[in-house]
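Subject: for your reference before the review

Hello V.,

The reviewers asked for a structural picture of the protein, and I figured it would be easier to keep everything in one thread rather than splitting it across files. Below is the amino acid sequence we used in the manuscript, unchanged from the supplementary table.
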Amino acid sequence: MAKTKKTSDSVKDDSFGEALRGFVKKVPFWVKISAISLVALIAILGAAGSVVAYSYSNKVFPKTSLLGQNLGGQTLVSAETQVDQLSNQIASTPLTFSYNEMTSTLSLSELNVEVDSSSIKQAISNNQGAYDYLKPIYWYDFFRPKALSFQAKTDEESIKAKIYESFKFPDTPTDANLKIENGQIAISEEKIGQIISVTDILEAINKIALTATPQELALSTQESLPVIRTQLASETKSTIEAAVKPIKLQADGFSYTIPASDQINWIDVSAGDNKFDWTYNKDKIAVYLESIKGKLNRGMVQRVIMQETGAVSKEGSIGRSVDINDLAQKVYETITETPSDTPVVNFSFRIIQITDKIIGPGYIAGMFPGKYIDVNLKKQVLYLMNGTTMEAEFRVSTGKWSMQTPIGTYTITKKDPRAYSATYKLYMPYWMSFIGNKYGVHELPEWPGGMKEGESHLGTPVSHGCIRLGIGSAKTVYDWTEIGTPINIHKD
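And here is what came back from the structure prediction:
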C-alpha cells in the first residue's frame, strides 16, 4: 500500500510542474522582463533604503530646521549643541517694556521664562527600530519638511512681579491713613495700584521664542483704587482738630489750661469700613497729666525751729498733690460725655500739712517721723534720731579731704557683721552700706593679721569715704539700725 501512495504523489508533482511550465511558456516575453525588473528594483530600493537608514541612524532627518537654521544631516550631538545655543540665545533676547515715559529692558531669563529645548531634542532624535525603514511612514517622516520652534514656559505671577519691581509702581492699592505724631495729625497719602495685563506680554514672549528677535511692548495697565481715599483722611483730620478745645483745670483757687495741641497725643485713630474712627485714650491722658504734675502739685515746705530757743527761723507752707488717675477720669468724662467749646474740669487737691524741722546743736531733728541716722561731717558726730528726739550720739571718722564722704540723704541697703574689702584687703566689722558696696557705716577696720585701727582717729576725717565708729558704739548702731533706715549726711 505504501509503495502505491508514493507513486501517486510523484504523479501529482509532475503534473503541477508540467502545468507551471506550460503557463510560463504562454506568458508574453515583455511581462517576464517587467516582472524581473520589478523584483530587481525592489531589491535595489530595499538595499538603498537600508544604506540610507543606516547612515541616518545617528543623524537628523533631512529638511529639519530650527529658527531658519538647517539641522538636517547633522549628527545628533552636533544638532543638540546647536539647539542649546539657540535656546540660550532666545533666553537672553531682550523684551523692552515702556510705561508712560519710562522704559525697562528684561531678557526672557530675567523674566523667569523657561525656553523648552527638551522637546526639540526629542523631535530630532531618530528612535527607529532596525527594520522601520521598511515602513512607508518612515520615509514619509524622512522626506517631509519639519520647521521646529521652541516653546516658552511662563509663570504669569513671576513675570508681573519682575515688572512691578522694575517700574517701581504698586501692584495693589494702599489706603490713605492718619497717624498721630508729636502732637500732629499726619496724613499718609493713598496709592493707586496698577494691574498689568499679561496677554500682550505672553504674545511678545512667544514671538521671541519663535523668531529669536528682540521685541518692544507698551504695557497695558488698569488702575486699582484704594478703599479709603486721601480726601476722607483730610476731612477726618479737620474734624478732629475742630473738636479738640483747650481744657481748663480748676481747684481751690488754682487753674491750669491744657492747650488743644497737647491733647492731640491723647487720640487713637483707626481705619474702618471706608471711614476713620477716633477716640480719646484715658491711659494717654493719665501719662500726659503725670508729665505736668510738677505744674499742678506743690511740695510742702517744713517750718524750721531752733531747738535751743524754740524760735522759728523759717516759716513753712502747705503742700498739695493731685490723684493723677482720678483727674484723668474726670478729664476723660468731660471731653467724651459732655463736650463743650469751653470745657472745664473741677477737681480737688490732697493737702499736705506743714511739719516742723528742728535744728539742734549739730543734728537735724524731725526729718523723718521715725528712726533715722544723722551725720554731721563738721563735728564728726553720728546721731541716732527718732522723729524730733535724739536718742544717742557717737564720735566718728569720715572721709579725708581727697576721698570725702558724700553729702545727701540715703538709705541703709545692706548689713554684714564682718565685711571684707578686697580693694583695701581689710575687714570692716558691723558693716552697713548706703551707696552700693562703696560707702557704708562700720567699726574701725582691722587687718587679717589682727592689727586694728586706733580709736585716736575718731573725730578726724581720715577714712576712704566710709563712716567709721569706735569699738562698742559700732555694734550699738548696728543693732539699732534696720535695713531701709534713712541716713542724712550734712556738713554742719
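For the response letter, the relevant points are probably these. Residues 1-6 have pLDDT under 50 and may be disordered. The chain has four domains: 20-53, 56-228, 244-352, 366-490.

Happy to draft the paragraph if you're swamped.

O.
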